[in-house]
Amino acid sequence: MAGKKPTRRNALGRGLGALLDDSSNSKEAGIVEEPRERKPLRERSAAVGSISEVQLDQIEVNPYQPRTDFDKEALEELAESIKVQGIIQPITLRKLNNNSFQLISGERRFQASKLVGLKKVPAYIRTADDQQMLEMALIENIQRQDLNAMEVALSYQRLLTDCSLKQEELGDRVGKKRSTVNNYLRLLKLPPDIQAAVRDGKISMGHARALISVEDSVFQLDLLKKILAEDLSVRKVEALVKQASFPDEPEEKIENKEPSKEIIKVQDQLSSHFGTKIKISANDKNKGEIKIPFTSVTELNRILEIIDA
């Protein structure tokens, strides 16, 4: 029997660690060895491969940062935490010259520190080229933040174009299945108004995927208006798309009926697996649907992680 397939979280962790770890003496990815003679942090120089305190005004933001929008309230909460507890996890920088550094990861901590009025922050100092900067920024954000679907799609596209990666290599680099990467990249084919709706959370990625299969952009935009006006479910949008593509085929209806013991058993198993109440509906022809409810974008991403694991 083949060995256990590593979870995606581990794949991402290894990917980030491998990119960050430029020291041949490191035993584990992402771990920096302290000098044998431990000096006070303020006395250490900003040497590559060390943890040092760096002036905020010497730090440039990461031009390859995939996140374009930071929640103001969440940033203020982080700032309050830093004010009380300090920065628990150092940010990661690359050294440009003796007095200049560039963020690799930790922009939220960097911005929150500025809000608090800090002059210095603790930081890992690394070496990285532009390609590594982009890859690390993307992987770090996917691991620790909920990028919206359009930010992920644009970041994947940038990895393909700026880093000259092939599409089949991209999934391995970011620890995602190739089908998942393709689904994100397909979002970039949608009209700008639909992309904006996905970015702003007005429609889900499921809605967008249903609209991708529509070739007529005018009909896509009409459907978008209908989704927003009537709060249509993904299932309903898929039915409308199917009806438009095959107008002679009658719309299939699923009648509500008392679930069988087998269905109830499966519902309970799925509910336990996903950590949320699952609903299964089926008709006499054994056709139906599975509903997986969620209450927030964070919970939706958690469910998607389980599905794609």
Automatic annotation (TrEMBL):
Bias kind Basic and acidic residues: ranges: 33-45
Record domain ParB-like N-terminal: where: 52-142
GO BP annotations listed: chromosome segregation
Residue segments, region Disordered: 1-47
Skewed-composition ranges (Low complexity): 9-20
Keyword DNA-binding listed: yes
Superkingdom, natural source: Bacteria
Name of a matching Pfam family: ParB_N
Keyword DNA-binding among UniProt keywords: yes
The entry's keywords: Chromosome partition, DNA-binding
GO cellular component entries: chromosome
A GO molecular function held by the record: DNA binding
Family, similarity comment: Belongs to the ParB family.
Name of the protein described by the UniProt record: Chromosome partitioning protein, ParB family
Lineage start: Bacteria, Pseudomonadati, Bacteroidota, Cytophagia, Cytophagales
